[in-house]
Fold Histidine--tRNA ligase.
Amino acid sequence: MVRTSLSGFPEWLPEGRIIEMHVLDELRRVFELHGFAGIETRAVETLEQLEAKGETSKEIYVLDRLQALKAAELGARAPKDKGMGLHFDLTVPFARYVVENANELDFPFKRYQIQKVWRGERPQDGRFREFTQADIDVVGNGELPFHFEVDLPLVMAEALNNLPIPPVRVLVNNRKVVQGVCDSLGVTDVEGALRGLDKIDKIGPEGVAVELAQSGISGDQASVLLRMAQVRSCDSAEIRQRLADLGVSGELLEEGLRELTELLDTANKRMPGVVVADLKIARGLDYYTGSVYESEIEGHEDLGSICSGGRYDSLAKDGKRTYPGVGLSIGVSRLVSRMISAPMVKASRKVPTAVVVAVITEDQRERSEAIAAALRARGISTDVAPSAAKFGKQIKFADKRGIPFVWFPGDDGAADTVKDIRTGEQVEADPATWTIPASDAVASVERVTD
Amino acid sequence: MVRTSLSGFPEWLPEGRIIEMHVLDELRRVFELHGFAGIETRAVETLEQLEAKGETSKEIYVLDRLQALKAAELGARAPKDKGMGLHFDLTVPFARYVVENANELDFPFKRYQIQKVWRGERPQDGRFREFTQADIDVVGNGELPFHFEVDLPLVMAEALNNLPIPPVRVLVNNRKVVQGVCDSLGVTDVEGALRGLDKIDKIGPEGVAVELAQSGISGDQASVLLRMAQVRSCDSAEIRQRLADLGVSGELLEEGLRELTELLDTANKRMPGVVVADLKIARGLDYYTGSVYESEIEGHEDLGSICSGGRYDSLAKDGKRTYPGVGLSIGVSRLVSRMISAPMVKASRKVPTAVVVAVITEDQRERSEAIAAALRARGISTDVAPSAAKFGKQIKFADKRGIPFVWFPGDDGAADTVKDIRTGEQVEADPATWTIPASDAVASVERVTD
C-alpha cells in the first residue's frame, strides 16, 4: 500500500489513505476536545527564517521559479524571488505566525497544526523527504505556567492511545535535572555530555564513556552521568532516591526534580503508567529549557520516537516580548507507514461507499439515482453502478471495493431489496427508512492481531 | 483575517481557519457521500511530468537542496537532485498516480483530492502563489460512460450549494458543439476562435470580432460565432432552437447537442435551475474533448469561476491503455478568501472549545481537570482556565475567544454550576449528565446577511 516512485516521497493507495485519514481525524478530534485551535501556515518561509537555526540548513529545499532559471540560463536578467524554501518543521512557521499576529491572538494560545513538511536529506533508513506532522503547542505572552508541561504530553498520550496501535508510552526528562547534575559534578561542557549520552542506545555505555572522555569529561564524572542515564521509572520517589544515591545536589537540580516528579505524579493520577521518566533522553536538551518528551510504541521500540517535544522559554521573540512555549510533534507519515507495513491495522474497505445501487437498464438509471439520493439524504454513502451490466458484474463492482451492500430497484412495482453481499442475506427495503448497521456506515480501521 | 507577510502566500487567523475547515469538511462530506475515495499525492513531481504540457511551464516552482546550491557556489561538485518541482494543479499528479497504480486501482475510479498547489507567477489581481484546491475526478480504463459527465458537475453543485454562500450556478458547454459550429462554418482555426471568444467578457463582442478577424475568420463567420456565444439557457429546447436559427449543422454538432441537452435535462430533474448552458465558455475547450464546466456565485460574478473542469478522453496514458476522465476542481483558497472578506460568513467562535472550567486555586487544579475529563469523555470540547485568577478574569478568558460556557467547581461540597456567559444564566450541573445545546457544541459558521 506504500508507493514511492520518487525516493523519499511516499504515497498511499486508497486503503492506505483510509488508514491515514482515520489517524488524522482521531488526532484532530482529541486536539479539539482539549480546546486546541487548528491553524495552517504557508509551506514556504524565507530562507532567513529557515536558517535562523544554523544546524538545520542542510535539510532545506530552496524554491526558484522555472521561468527565472531558464531566463538566467539564457543570460537574460530575470526577476529573482527573494530567497524562499519549504518549511522543514511546523515550529519555525508557528513561531513566525505568533510574532506576526501577536496583536490578534489570545494568549495563552493553544494551537494544533497538521501539515506536510519537507527535508532535502538523502533518503536513507527509510527516511522521508516529504511527510506529515501533527503538532500541538501552547504559547504564552511573556510567561507560561508550568502546568502546561504536564498537560501537553498527556493530550498527546490520549491522542496516540486512542489510535488502533499498541500502547504508547511518553518518556520524559528535564533539562534542569541534567544541567543540575552536570553543574554538581563540575562538568562544564554540557553540550558534549548531551551529545555523548544521546548515543547510548547506539554505542552502549562503554562507547559513551569514550565519547565523554573526548569532551574532557573525567572517568568519575562519566560514571555518574552513565548511572544517571540508567534511571527510568514511573515512580517519583524512586527517581528522587536514585538521584540522591548519585551524591549530586544543587538548586537547579532540585527545581528540575520538582518539575519532573510533579509531572510524573500528576500523570500517574490522570493516566496511570503512561508517562515514564527516562533520564538518558538527551536529544533536544540543548535547546529545550525545561521538560523534554519522547515516546515509544510497545513492541515497536525500533521505530524510535514518533512523538517528541519539550518546553522552550523562547519559542518566539519580537522587539518587546518573549513567547515561551511547550509542544509536541507526531511524525504521522512514519507512524502510518509502520501501521500499514507491520501491519498493525486493516481498513474494512477501499472506499467510503456503504451501498451500491444497481442499474436495471440504462433507461432506468434515473430510478437508481433517485434511490441513491434518498439514501444520501439520510447520510448513507452511496454509489450507483457505472453500467447496467448483468447483476453478477454489478455485485462484483461492490465486492472488489469491499462495499457491503447492493441495492436492487424493484422490478414492475415490486419492492426494492437490499443485499448484504458478505452474508448473501437479501431483504425488502425502502430508501426512506432502511437503517444501515452502525459498524457498516463508514469505512473502519481495525487492529490486526495475529 | 487574511495575512500575507509573503506576497501571494495567504494565511488565516484562527477564526478564518475555522471557516476554511468548515468548507473543507463539508466538501469532503459530500464527496464521500457520493462514494469518492480520498487520495493524496506528493507535492513534488519531476519537471518532466510538470512540463509535459508546455504552456504551464512558466508557473512551476523548482526545488533544489540548499546544501547542493551552497556547495555549487563554492565550486564543489554536489550531488544534484533530478529535476523536481511543486505541482501546480492536482490533475497532473492524479494522472501519474493512475498510471503508476493502474494494476491496484478499481476502474472506474472515483477520487477526491484536497491539497495545496503552487504557482510561481507574479502575484497580481490578488492571485495566490500557494492555494488549496479540491478536486473530484472519475477515470475509466479505456472507456468512460457519458453519464459521468452529468453526475460530476451535479456532485460539485451539491457540495457548493451546501456551503453558507449565495447560490452557485454551474455553467456548461461542450467542445463538440463549438467544434461542430466551426466545422459547419468552415472555420479551420478553432483554437483561434476559442481564444477570441474567451475574451468576450473582457473586451466585448466588437473586440472579439477584431481578434477573430486576425485569426483569419471572416465577418460572416464571426457574426455567427458571436450569436452562438450569446446563447445561455437552462432549457434544452431553447438551446436547440437558437442553434438551429444559426443555420449550422453536422454530425459532430448533433452529437454535442445531444450530450449538452441530456446534461441539462437530467440536471433539471435532479437539481432544477442549477445547471445552465452557456455557449460562450471557451476556456479549456482546447484540451477538453466533451463537456466543459465553469461556475459562478450569485452576486459574486466578478470573482470568476471558482469551480471548473470537463471531460478529457485522454486524462492519462501508458504503453497499452488510455484512461479517459471527467472532473472538476474548486479553488478553495480563493473562495474562502472571498467568504471572509465580503464577508459572507462569520464563525461563532475562534476556538473549538465549548466550555472553560474555572480553577478555584492552583492547589485545586486537578478538581477542574477531572471535571474537564468528564465533559470530554462525553464529546464536549473543554479547556481549563490557565491560571487561578479572579473569576472575572477567567470569564474574560472565555469571552475573548467566544467560548459560550464557564463551569464553576462547587465550593465546600456545593454542587458545580455552569454559566452561559452570553445570557448570564447560571445553573447547577453535573459533568456526567449535563447536556450542551446542539447549536453550541461545535464552532459554527453562519451566513452574514446585511
User: Anything to note?
Assistant: Chain B touches chain A through 90 residues (CB under 8 Å).
